[in-house]
Design a protein that fits this description.
The protein is mostly beta strands. 7% of the residues lie in helices and 20% in strands.
């Protein structure tokens, strides 16, 4: 028959020396119900149940963690002869990790033996975790990069392809990690047919180092299509115009020569004729 035990104050059931002893209190019934709060002050709580049902929507772990020690916290699954599995917060790395582990759940740390896979649904929101299939088909399969040279011809670099920078005629390229392409010019450039200064009225300078000279090892051509003669300066300027009395069409001016007036270089034929004429 039902029986109720009532007291007007605290009620203690104690066996032997209590919590410091080795005795056990056993409740042997189909259901043991605690109507008020249940507080367990021991060091270990073991539930030998087949099914655990918890009404609380939030489970709080590491309650007394003051963050003065590196404390990992999470859920550990025993797997018998295989390494255990765990999904936990790694305090040292400040990340959630899914791993296999040799740890048994005692202590304050979990030792990883290997990372474990996490399977998720295909993402439908920008904040969802991306699956491998999503990355392969949406990002990897759909990725392409278009590159164009000076001729505006577009080249498509698809997923898995390599964009290579090729040098020629004294220009070399070299790749290095991380993400660096170095383009170098050799001392001797080959097959350079034209050098143009695109700035209006700007000079184009060729300078040799120290006491070296600028050497022109072939025909030097002066097109006679300039408009007028250049302004004279203290530097000798050589230019071409319509041939005149000198018979060469090659002129020069310098502010230190003839007050800067242009003079024409005399050809050998003209010089010989002049010498004969002057006796």
């Amino acid at each position: 028959m039902a029986k109720t035990l009532r007291t007007s104050g605290d009620y203690t059931i104690k066996t032997g020396t209590g919590a410091s002893g080795s005795n056990t209190v056993t409740f042997d019934s189909k259901t043991t119900r605690v109507s008020g709060d249940l507080v367990v002050d021991g060091t270990s709580t073991t539930l030998n149940t087949a099914t655990l049902t918890i009404e609380d929507p939030i489970i709080r772990l590491a309650k007394n963690n003051t963050n003065t020690v590196d404390t990992d916290s999470g859920i550990l699954v025993e797997r018998g002869v295989d390494n255990n599995a765990a999904f936990y917060w790694n305090e040292g790395d400040t990340v959630f990790k899914a791993v296999t582990t040799t740890s048994d759940g005692t202590g304050t740390s979990i030792t990883d033996t290997a990372l474990a896979n996490i399977r998720a649904a295909e993402p439908s929101n920008t904040a969802d975790v991306a699956t491998k299939n999503y990355v392969d088909t949406t990002v990897g399969g759909g990725f392409s990069l278009k590159v164009a040279g000076d001729d505006s011809t577009q080249i498509t670099v698809g997923s898995g392809n390599t964009l290579q920078f090729s040098g020629t005629n004294g220009i070399t390229t070299k790749g290095a990690e991380p993400d660096t392409i170095t383009i170098s010019l050799a001392n001797n450039l080959e097959n350079i047919h034209s050098i143009t200064n695109s700035s209006t009225n700007a000079d184009l300078s060729l300078s040799a180092n120290s006491n070296g000279s600028v050497v022109i090892d072939d025909v030097l051509t002066f097109p006679a299509n300039r408009s007028g003669e250049p302004s004279a300066t203290a530097v000798t300027k050589v230019f071409a115009q319509t041939p005149s009395g000198g018979g060469t069409g090659l002129f020069f001016n310098n502010t230190s020569v003839g007050s800067g007036a242009a003079g024409e270089l005399i050809s050998k034929k003209k010089a010989t004729a002049l010498a004969i004429a002057l006796g």
